[in-house]
């Protein structure tokens, strides 16, 4: 018994074959009805999924299956890589090669889907309504988003493996937190709507998420506006305080200048007083000297006067 993985080539080939058979059967049924054949009643409970007849819808379903397959392959590769650590086994390398090959095919199919949408847009007056074309455009955009997401998932794991180090510090941290394993996000789970689902509901969910984000951004913007106003008020207050400080500095400089002037005047006055004191001392000393000289002169004069008087017999 051969076990066929969801991502295996056999599974993909069988899916393509079933799609082709369904397409042929639907076309034959259409020819039968156009030729006058009666449509057999179908029990709604037993009725299976609707058969896709237009090329755009068929390609859309193929892309959906490819995305699911690639996501499953990435999950399997990540699990094996988690078990192997930094050692790349042959199976892991082969899985990586298969993933990249399928992603290249997925990129081409998304390009073909977009080209088909452009073709349908040019023929819109003949076959498709504006709503249908708008729906197709949204599907192309959704496929692009899924493609980008799986590309990021494919690159993310290898970048994580490449950045791992076997240093002693990492080993110590691993030993310290042993048992608390971090589970990587499941590649098969996405926040994006399913490609094969109701695109209107998916877009509605996306619009709701965008609206929630916009509302959050509005709240953040209002908060930032309040903070900015507070910052402006603080800046104005600081500017007023700076002006007050500058005024005080200017008044202090003027007071210092006045004080320096008064000190200079007082010093000059003291110098003059000192000079006057010296003159006064000099005058007093001169007067004392003159008094002494006069006294000595008087004494000498009186002495000689007595001598002269005695000599003359007066």
TrEMBL record:
Domain of life: Eukaryota
Gene3D superfamilies referenced in this protein's UniProt entry, alphabetically: 1.20.5.110, 1.20.58.90
Protein's recorded name: t-SNARE coiled-coil homology domain-containing protein
Annotated InterPro entries: T_SNARE_dom
Upper taxonomic lineage: Eukaryota, Metamonada, Carpediemonas-like organisms, Carpediemonas
Keyword Transmembrane: yes
Coiled coil: 96-123, 231-276
Signal sequence annotation: none
Organism of derivation: Carpediemonas membranifera
Keywords: Coiled coil, Membrane, Transmembrane, Transmembrane helix
Listed transmembrane segments: 279-304
Domain T-SNARE coiled-coil homology intervals: 207-269
């Amino acid at each position: 018994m051969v076990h066929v993985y969801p991502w295996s080539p056999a599974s993909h080939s069988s899916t393509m074959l079933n799609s082709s058979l369904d397409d042929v059967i639907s076309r034959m049924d259409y020819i039968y009805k156009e030729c006058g054949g009666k449509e057999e009643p179908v029990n709604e409970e037993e009725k299976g999924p609707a058969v896709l007849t237009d090329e755009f819808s068929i390609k859309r379903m193929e892309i959906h299956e490819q995305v699911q397959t690639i996501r499953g392959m990435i999950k399997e590769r990540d699990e094996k890589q988690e078990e192997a650590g930094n050692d790349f086994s042959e199976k892991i390398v082969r899985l990586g090669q298969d993933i990249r090959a399928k992603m290249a095919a997925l990129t081409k199919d998304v390009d073909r889907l977009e080209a088909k949408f452009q073709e349908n847009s040019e023929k819109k007056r003949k076959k498709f309504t504006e709503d249908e074309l708008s729906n197709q455009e949204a599907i192309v955009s959704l496929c692009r988003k899924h493609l980008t997401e799986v590309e990021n998932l494919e690159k993310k794991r290898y970048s994580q493996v490449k950045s791992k180090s076997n240093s002693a510090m990492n080993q110590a941290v691993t030993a310290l937190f042993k048992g608390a394993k971090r589970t990587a996000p499941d590649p098969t789970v996405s926040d994006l709507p399913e490609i094969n689902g109701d695109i209107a509901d998916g877009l509605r969910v996306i619009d709701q998420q965008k609206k929630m984000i916009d509302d959050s951004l509005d709240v953040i913007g209002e908060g930032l506006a309040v903070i900015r106003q507070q910052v402006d008020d603080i800046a104005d207050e600081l500017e007023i305080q700076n002006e007050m400080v500058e005024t005080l500095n200017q008044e202090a400089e003027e007071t210092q200048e006045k004080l320096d002037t008064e000190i200079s005047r007082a010093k000059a006055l003291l110098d003059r007083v000192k000079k006057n004191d010296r003159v006064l001392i000099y005058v007093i000393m001169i007067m004392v000297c003159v008094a002494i000289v006069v006294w000595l002169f008087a004494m000498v004069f009186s002495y000689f006067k007595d001598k002269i008087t005695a000599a003359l017999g007066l």
